[in-house]
From TrEMBL, chain A:
This is D-inositol 3-phosphate glycosyltransferase. PANTHER family: BLL3647 PROTEIN, GLYCOSYLTRANSFERASE. Residues 1-281 form the DUF3492 domain. SUPFAM superfamilies: UDP-Glycosyltransferase/glycogen phosphorylase. It comes from the Bacteria. It holds the Pfam family Glyco_trans_1_4. It comes from Streptomyces pyxinicus.
Length: 568, 483
């Protein structure tokens, strides 16, 4: 099976987003062929080069998203009219409001948006020169007409000339993937399946491949692209009219992606809720949790508890959102109940803000907890210690978790809690605050308290510190749950199953023509989509025009083996 | 509330009281507040930690942990929370939230020391409308949001989850955000006038650089008058090279610098060079051709058998400075009008006089420079037309319109080339009639009529083109991609 993997600012580039996950996916599913289609996000990425790729990656195509090569094409009258129609339609839909709430009226708008988008893509495919046209006076005029039309929302009606120009520039940037030459029969059109590793710009080529060549689309979103657009396009970045129109475009695009994708795989329930909200059908969503390497935690997780009794451990990146102040106050209450308790904070600060916050927390710890000594003649020590990974107390990450009887998390804002999963792999009992995907990750295998509630946190910690048996029980359950849900293997297996499901439900039907232009029946046999490589290396490139049974060696599917099993 | 619940609360309250005392004595900073602006402010705890009774949840809802140990409270919470994805609804969530004591240690204990003993929520903590409190807290976000999803994203970034939203009796953050979006007052006239976009500044670099071609040309011309023989050829070579480099530098910086074009620039450049060369040597060449020559090469002085028109060339080189200033005026004026106009038509009607005004200004400056450099009034139209043509072509190129300038420059260059080629072709036997139009023209108006006509027509065409294209808002869009 040939899979077109679509990334944006990610995988094949060194240090790209989600590079590790994509690498594991590609290496883990070596029975498939992967074609990489990567959009780069900046000049540095292109100069830094690509990571080493495994042999199952048969092709890498890259395109810049940060610059628009000017192909110098100026439209004649007919393409210009077509462009004006499509862009005008797009602008009208954008001015109809941003929120794609499912409904009859909205379905019509979504259709119109899709038609306009595909119209522009077809124009770019046939004539080229879309970039220049998107910046042209025709485009700005169409935007103005749509904004001034009766029924446009008030923010859009207030758009001034600079706002219109800014919107046109934003749209030009967002629609750059339309001008790519990736949609022919020997590029994305030859794939059996497009897998977009993110929403937004990465999924746009997948949408077009689906439109032009009926290639089914699978979209994986670990962070909701639409949401990050909203956060990036804050109130101070642009005028309200610009923000309204651009937000409207992005939410319409997200809705179109969610509508057209065969299967959506959000990384957690939070992403899933956003997708459902933007019109994704429930039946086509499969949550696939991100996988982590469990092997390095197995030693700690399987060995008996060697932790110092009464030690709480916090591991992570020191940031204000992690609310360590609340943790210190909780620990103050823990100390009142359990005077022997100690707290170990392991982590390095993230950025300037994190450094300042770490200093703040150190000062607070010094104020709350005076140094203590065992006797009158020994040197004292603070019950709260701040260390980094690699220090004597925590030489490695698993050791850091192993040193604690209980792992504590006190975040106020959280995405997918990686550190919590690591603690689960280490078989630690955990107390965490209910933020982000924590509840979904922990299931029933740890304690959860409301965020910003030091007393509840303290009570839960004390309860676990006093009850070693319960700690061991919860830790074992957590490890079992993490091994079931959050390993790399489950992630890859899930995608393997989803690939097969998609291909079995909606195979690409290609009509292959022979030399005289007559359609060749049975030219693309079903066997061509079986997982696994062809026995004959000469048949590997697999031009679907020539079925392998034509070339001589008969193809044996897996049927005889199955029969043998059954007969026995 | 059951007795068990009170007992549990008593334990917690005891802890709280002690915490309060210690904080009061220790004088430490506020607990539970991330110091960064991104997270919650100190008051957020009020509604987060609210007792469910405040929100009208029936008191019959199980009060949570019962009389046994504290930790099971947390587990009850846990199960309630993990059930949430099913249809547990607000009551389960409120129950889950119950271990959050009514008094958030971030605010209440410092102001109300009684709470350690008595855990009844104080009356002032009974908002009739919890959403209103939330709206007040996130007023800025809600007022400036362009749609409900933006509020939802902002709330989530502040730590609001579906569990929190359930306390406001909403199914999820999205419906809470919708209510906030619907309830926030949006008065139309509050929007401030946008700041005008930054006008490109006058930099000393290009202001000086733009004087360089004129200065170098003046120096070359002056040196040529003094020099003789071989020194003169050397001088001509050096002078032309220096002026070419200076002009290239002047066009790379400042308001005359256009986008770097990889293709289609070669032809335009060749045409421009041909036009300039014709302005220098063309009139002498045409005279010589018509009188049977040319017999010698030009010597670089404005007399002799093949005179060189140094005075108009000097005026044109000096005119680089007014050209740059005119381009700057056009850009700055267009930016101001862009910010000030409501619609595209407004901008077009405001930009047209601006364009024509700057153009007239340049022509006036060039017309003043020509007599100063010693150009005869009879020969003035040709350099004037050439200057107009070059400026309009450059302005169009700077604003990304390359097609028109290439055509116009090519046409002018071709016309001039034809004017020289036709008399030469007329020398062939039987082709004498080819000479007639050029000879008539030269006899009537002199040899400078040829470039004046060729460049004048092309300049007029380009000016008409510019009044259509350069008055569009899209021509003045700020370059550089938004992000």
């Amino acid at each position: 099976m040939r899979i077109g993997l679509l990334t944006e600012g990610g995988y094949p580039y060194v240090g790209g987003d989600a590079g590790l996950w994509c690498d594991r996916l590609v290496r883990g599913l070596e029975q498939h062929e992967f074609d990489l289609y990567a959009l780069s996000r900046g000049r540095e990425q292109e100069t830094d080069g690509l990571v080493p790729l495994p042999p199952q990656v048969t092709r890498v195509r890259t395109a810049p998203l940060w610059t628009a090569p000017d192909d110098g094409v100026v439209y004649g009258r007919r393409p210009r009219r077509r462009f004006a129609e499509c862009y005008g339609e797009l602008a009208t839909v954008l001015c109809a409001g941003a929120d794609p709430v499912p409904g009859a009226c909205s379905a019509e708008l979504a259709d119109r948006f899709g038609n306009a988008l595909y119209g522009l893509a077809a124009l770019a495919r046939a004539e080229g020169g879309l970039g220049g046209a998107l910046r042209s006076d025709t485009a700005v005029r169409a935007l103005e007409r749509a904004c001034r039309a009766p029924g446009a929302p008030r923010t859009a009606r207030e758009a001034r000339v600079p706002d219109l120009l800014a919107v046109a520039a934003h749209l030009e940037r967002a629609l750059r993937p339309l001008s790519l030459d990736w949609y022919d029969d020997d590029t994305l059109g030859a794939a059996d399946l497009c897998h977009a590793t993110a929403g937004g710009p990465a999924a746009l080529p997948g949408l077009l491949a689906r439109h032009f060549a009926d290639v089914p689309l699978l979209v994986t979103e670990y962070g909701v692209r639409l949401r990050s657009h909203y956060l990036a396009l804050g109130p101070d970045t642009a005028a309200p009219a610009v923000r309204a129109l651009v937000a409207s475009f992005h939410s319409r695009l997200a809705a179109e992606v969610y509508r057209r994708a065969e299967i959506l795989t959000p990384g957690n329930a939070h992403a899933r809720r956003w997708q459902e909200r933007c019109g994704a059908e429930r039946g086509r969503i499969r949550t696939v949790h991100p996988g982590m390497d469990a092997a390095r935690f197995s030693e700690v997780g399987e060995s008996p508890d060697r932790s110092e009794p009464g030690t709480l451990v916090w591991v992570g990146r020191v940031e204000p959102a992690k609310d360590l102040v609340s943790l210190l106050h909780a620990f103050a209450e823990v100390r009142r109940a359990e005077p022997a308790a100690r707290l170990r904070i392991v982590g390095s600060p993230g950025g300037h803000e994190g450094t300042a916050y770490l200093g703040h927390c150190r000062a607070l710890a010094a104020q709350l907890f005076p140094d203590e000594a065992d006797g009158p003649h020994t040197e004292g020590d603070n019950p709260v210690s701040f260390t980094e990974i690699g220090g004597p107390e925590a030489p490695t990450l698993p050791e850091a978790y192993a040193g604690g009887a209980v792992v504590v998390r006190s975040s106020v804002v959280e995405g997918f809690p990686v550190a919590l999963v690591e603690a689960m792999f280490c078989g630690r009992a955990t107390v965490s605050t209910d933020a982000g995907a924590v509840v979904e990750v922990i299931g029933g295998t740890g304690l959860v308290v409301p965020p910003r509630n030091p007393r509840a946190l303290a009570e839960a910690c004390v309860a676990l510190l006093r009850d070693p048996e319960r700690r061991a029980r919860l830790g074992a359950a957590a490890r079992a749950r993490a091994l079931e849900l959050f390993t790399v293997e489950q992630n890859i297996a899930a995608f393997h199953g989803i690939y097969l499901e998609i291909v079995s439900h909606c195979p690409v039907r290609r009509v292959v023509l022979d030399a005289t232009g007559e359609p060749l029946p049975f030219a693309a046999p079903a066997e061509s989509r079986l997982p696994g490589h062809w026995p004959d290396p000469a048949a590997r490139p697999l031009p679907r025009a020539v079925p392998s049974w034509v070339t001589g060696t008969p193809v044996r599917a897996t049927v005889p083996a199955v029969l043998g099993e059954g007969a026995r | 509330m059951s007795a068990g619940g009170d007992g549990w609360r008593g334990v917690a309250g005891d802890l709280a009281r002690r915490g309060t005392e210690e904080r009061a004595s220790g004088g430490v900073d506020r607990p539970g507040t991330p110091s960064a602006a991104g997270a919650w402010d100190a008051r957020s705890g009020e509604w987060l930690g609210d007792d469910p009774a405040d929100l009208g949840v029936p008191p019959s809802a199980p009060a949570g942990p019962g009389s046994e140990a504290v930790p099971s409270a947390a587990e009850v919470l846990l199960s309630a929370l993990s059930d949430l994805t099913d249809d547990a609804g607000p009551s389960a969530v409120s129950r889950g939230a119950l271990p959050a004591p009514a008094a958030d240690p971030g605010t209440a204990p410092l102001t109300d020391p009684r709470q350690g003993r008595k855990r009844a929520p104080s009356p002032r903590r009974l908002p009739g409308d919890p959403v209103k409190t939330l709206l007040h807290r996130h007023r800025d976000l809600c007022e400036r949001a362009v749609d409900p999803l933006e509020i939802a994203a902002g709330l989530e970034a502040h730590g609001v989850t579906d569990r929190t939203a359930a306390r406001f009796r909403h199914r999820d953050v999205f419906s809470l955000a919708e209510e906030l979006y619907a309830r926030v007052p949006r008065d139309g006239d509050a929007r401030p006038e946008p700041d005008p976009p930054p006008v490109p500044r006058v930099r000393a670099g290009w202001a000086l650089l733009i004087l360089l071609p004129g200065a170098l040309t003046g120096a070359t011309v002056a040196a040529l008058r003094l020099a003789h023989g071989h020194t003169r050829q050397l001088l001509v070579l050096t002078g032309v090279l220096a002026v070419a480099l200076a002009t290239r530098a002047a066009l790379r910086h400042g308001p005359l610098s256009g986008p770097r074009a990889k293709h289609a620039a070669g032809g335009t450049r060749a045409c421009t060079l041909w036009l300039l060369a014709y302005a220098l040597f063309g009139d002498g060449l045409l005279d010589a051709v018509l009188s049977g020559g040319p017999d010698t090469l030009p010597t670089g002085v404005p007399y002799g058998p093949w005179p060189t028109a140094t005075a108009p060339a000097l005026a044109l080189a000096l005119a680089c400075a007014p050209a740059a200033w005119c381009a700057h005026l056009l850009t700055a004026g267009a930016r101001r009008r862009l910010a000030g106009s409501r619609g595209l038509e407004d901008f077009t009607s405001a930009a047209k006089p601006l364009l024509l005004g700057t153009f007239t200004l340049f022509l006036g400056a060039l017309a003043a420079l020509l007599p100063l450099t010693g150009t005869a009034p009879r020969e003035a139209p040709a350099p004037l037309a050439l200057g107009a043509l070059l400026l309009s072509a450059r302005l169009l190129t700077v604003h990304q319109y390359r097609h028109g300038p290439a055509l116009a420059l090519g046409a002018a260059a071709a016309t001039e080339a034809a004017a020289v080629a036709l008399p030469l072709a007329g020398r062939l036997p039987g082709c004498a009639f080819l000479t007639t139009p050029v000879r008539t023209l030269v006899d009537t108006w002199g040899p400078s009529a040829v470039p004046a006509l060729a460049c004048g027509t092309a300049a007029l065409a380009l000016l008409l083109h510019a009044t259509r294209t350069l008055t569009r808002a899209s021509a003045h869009a700020p370059t550089g991609a938004p992000e």
